[in-house]
Amino acid sequence: MRTLLVVVIGLGVLMVGGAIVVIGTVLSRLNNPETIPVKPGFVETEISIPAGAELVGVENGDARIVLRLKDNNGPLLILLDPRKGLEKGRVRLREE
């Protein structure tokens, strides 16, 4: 009889723990904007780059796409949102 009581309490603890994990996972996914699905049908977007700039490389990731450019003023990084195709920002690299 005592063994049955221990098993029932143990299973109850496992169920409560599992529910906490499921609820925590759902809440973390809802609060993370990178996991929000985007509608299919990605449209063409245009991004302005400096005149005479040369594309040196592209780095692709889940959170952003980085275009590495080189122009007369030096290296330039353009950060893009891969889900929406919009420019997130620019970083100009300068020597000290």
| Mean of pLDDT | 86
Regarding quaternary structure, how should these chains be classified? Answer: single chain
Number of strands: 4
Shape: elongated
Poorly predicted regions: none
Largest sheet features: 4 strands, antiparallel
Summarize the structure.
This protein has 96 residues and is α+β, with helices and mostly antiparallel strands.
Structure description:
- With 96 residues, the chain is of the alpha+beta class.
- The chain has a domain at 49-96.
- 31% of the residues lie in helices and 28% in strands.
- It contains one helix and four strands.
- It has one helix spanning 2-31; strands at 54-60, 65-71, 74-80, 87-92.
- A four-stranded antiparallel beta sheet has the order 1-2-3-4, with no helix packed on it.
- Strand 1 (54-60) and strand 2 form a beta hairpin.
- The longest helix has 30 residues, at 2-31.
- It is elongated, with a radius of gyration of 25 Å.
- The model has no long low-confidence stretch (mean pLDDT 86).
Notable characteristics:
96 residues; alpha+beta; 4-stranded antiparallel beta sheet; 1 helix; 4 strands; 28% strand; elongated
Strand and helix layout:
Blueprint: H1 2-31, E1 54-60, E2 65-71, E3 74-80, E4 87-92
Antiparallel strand pairs: 1-2, 2-3, 3-4
